[in-house]
Design goal:
Layout: H1 5-10, E1 20-23, E2 29-35, E3 40-44, H2 51-54, H3 58-68, E4 72-76, H4 95-108, E5 114-119, H5 122-132, E6 137-143, H6 161-174, H7 182-185, H8 187-190, H9 193-206, H10 209-219, E7 235-240, H11 248-257, E8 262-266, H12 278-290, E9 299-310, H13 313-320, H14 322-342, E10 345-350, E11 354-359, H15 362-377, E12 383-395, E13 398-400, H16 402-412, E14 419-422, H17 423-428, E15 436-442, E16 451-456
Parallel strand pairs: 3-4, 3-5, 5-6, 6-7, 7-8, 12-14
Antiparallel strand pairs: 1-2, 2-4, 9-11, 9-12, 10-11, 12-13, 14-16, 15-16
Helix pairs in contact: 4-5, 9-14, 13-14, 14-15
Length: 458
């Protein structure tokens, strides 16, 4: 079997880079990754991380690849989280000990000095490290960060004590069963059920409930304000104006108290760099670290594209009446979201009476389409589906490109209750046990060439 060269180049796009381990002075193992070329950049995006899972979510992976386009990107899981050695709870290492983890990673990766780019509570380690180890810190970038979380008489930017305590209760009760904090931190992402499922899994696998509770109790008591004047490294503070998780007053305080820090306020309410106008954030970081910035080519990744469509939806709506029909559509949407979560699909958008979704594996995509079709039969709905595997261009939360057009045309060629796929999908799922029936060659409207199509055997 042969593949076009562009497909071969893309097979591993989005896969996590190799995991390596650095050994600390107290004989613990810290998982880390290195990817890209250029000046060294250590990225600390969250408090609890998981190096492999960070690359699974397209928006997160896009930010990581963008950073690696102008820097030698270094990522790590601090002790106690992700793939690094666990630590006993409820007693956790100090911030200073976590700074030692950064030193271990720098030594293992043969990095003399690096820029630290950090956000959220991950920035606490970055701030202290920059103050303690100025010779190992070439620059400091704080995005959506703070020096202190709890409110104090001399720090009104912080959260009231009752809000902090209520949040800790939510963490303890819900960690690993729902995406804690997502509705406040990233409201647009919170509306995506497939992302909510991924975020829940990410949190659960990044840290255990006991570990995260010990961490959060520590985080809310940290106060780094006294050390800010000691940070001598060039510093950039970036904050979105509408950030509800870390309000912008936190960013202004950092910029005012770190000597010669540069402050950049950007529009938006999303706390995570990966959401909202992530391009604007990355361009500011790139310009600060390299002296120049560039708009990259469109982010291209290899995915399997799925289109589904309810057969004869107009006549069914007329027959059933608006109220009954809309009730059926609600059940359709809920069922589809469940199956997408089960098969690691990502909902891109609704398309009339169907959907557009993408998957990181063609076999999962085919099985998800079959599960959706079979389940909807129980509601008296017939759906047709079409799938194709190819490169797509990521545009914020949407996808475009020839692969999308092909999958849409394949779907429109399917009969009622049929799942139709391109030859590319058939070749890629060889050995999966999925069986197909040839449907001959077709010309797909607006797509060059003749395409071999196959029907998934029921």
């Amino acid at each position: 079997m042969t593949f076009p060269s562009d497909v071969l180049r893309s097979i591993h796009v989005g896969a996590a880079p190799m995991i390596r381990y650095a050994k600390t002075s107290d004989d613990l193992h810290i998982a880390y990754q290195v990817v890209g070329d250029g000046p060294a950049l250590v990225y600390m995006p969250h408090w609890a991380t998981h190096l492999e899972l960070l690359w699974e979510e397209p928006s997160s992976a896009r930010v990581l690849r963008r950073l690696a386009s102008f820097a030698r990107l270094i990522l790590f899981d601090k002790r106690g989280v992700g793939l690094s050695d666990p630590v006993p709870v409820p007693v956790l290492p100090t911030l200073e000990t976590w700074c030692d983890d950064v030193l271990a990673v720098l030594e293992a990766s043969r990095t003399e000095a690096a820029a630290l780019v950090a956000s959220d509570a991950g920035s606490f380690v970055a701030q202290l490290f920059a103050a303690l180890h100025p010779s190992r810190t070439s620059a400091l970038v704080l995005y959506g960060s703070a020096a202190r979380l709890r409110r104090a008489d001399d720090y009104p930017a912080g959260l009231p004590h009752h809000v902090v305590d209520a949040f800790l209760d939510v963490v303890e009760q819900s960690w690993g069963t729902e995406p804690v904090g997502l509705d406040v931190s990233d409201p647009s992402a919170a509306r995506d059920e497939s992302f909510r499922a991924w975020q829940t899994s990410y949190q659960r696998q990044s840290a255990s409930p006991g570990t995260i509770m010990a961490m959060m109790r520590m985080v809310v008591e940290i106060d780094l304000r006294p050390i800010l004047p000691s940070i001598s490294t060039p510093t950039l503070v970036v904050h979105r104006s509408g950030d509800r998780w870390y309000p912008i007053a936190h960013g202004r305080y950092l910029a005012e108290h770190i000597p010669n820090a540069e402050f950049v306020e950007l529009e938006g309410s999303e706390h995570d760099i990966a959401f909202g106008d992530s391009q604007a954030v990355i361009l500011r970081i790139e310009e600060f670290l390299t002296g120049a910035s560039h708009v990259p080519e469109l982010d291209r990744i290899l995915v399997t594209v799925l289109f589904t469509d309810i057969v004869a939806s107009t006549s069914e709506a007329s027959r059933l009446g608006d109220r009954t029909w809309h009730g059926l559509l609600d059940q359709h949407d809920a069922l589809v979201q469940r199956q997408l979560g089960r098969y690691r699909g990502r909902m891109i958008k609704a398309t009339g009476d169907g959907l557009l979704a993408i998957f990181d594996g063609p076999a999962r995509a085919v099985r998800c389409a079959a599960a959706i079709r079979d389940a909807l039969r129980g509601f008296g709905l017939d759906v047709r589906a079409g799938l194709h595997t190819g490169e797509v261009e990521m545009r914020d939360q949407d996808v475009t490109g020839l692969a999308v057009n092909i999958a849409q045309r394949v779907s429109s060629s399917a009969a009622a209750s049929e799942i139709l796929v391109s030859r590319t999908v058939v070749d890629l799922v060889a050995g999966s046990g999925i069986e197909f029936d040839a449907r001959g060659e077709r010309q797909l409207r607006g797509v060059p060439g003749v395409w071999q199509l196959y029907s998934v055997r029921a």
